[in-house]
Amino acid sequence: MAGAAGHRSRTLRPMAISTNQFKNGNHIEVEGVIFKILEFQHVKPGKGGAFVRTKLRRVSDGAVIDRTFRAGERFRSVRSESRKMQFLYADGGEAHFMDTGSYDQLAVPEQAIADALRFTRASDEVDLLFIDGQPSDIQLPSAVDLEVTETDPGLRGDTASGGGTKPATLETGAQVQVPLFVNVGDKVRVDTRNGEYVSRA
After folding, report:
1. Are 142 and 171 in contact (CB under 8 A)?
2. Are residues 62 and 31 in the same domain?
């Protein structure tokens, strides 16, 4: 049975995906270009055919576009796999990663993964997503814990009232709004999907 299970893991995905199989985070190929589905909405107007409104991120450069497709339209399903890699550094043009097993290094255009890099520290181990064999995206957990490196001191009395927020810079360089009682050196939990403060970590 072990052999059968191993064989099953190598099975290729179906070659076509229809609009009714869309999921956020899926990758599809549209007119020869690979996109990640960020958002989609099925629309059924009173007259005419149903359609799907989408927000897509182009994998090659990170550009976000809006596209509308006919309901039931089919696309090539893109093969994707994630590999554990260590994030080394970003140089302003490319982000550099290393396979901790083979020590092979590779680079990804920084703009294509800019959102994820806001919450990734140098030397962090990340799940790097490969699309059709090409490194393309970082799969982040839904929340990360990061240290506050810059923020105005909280005013006396603010801790009790709990109202209001202020900007804070995190150790990765990301800027988020935090409650007034948060200070430099505190660790905070941030939602990576919207960049919002969740709690103290």
Report:
1. no
2. yes
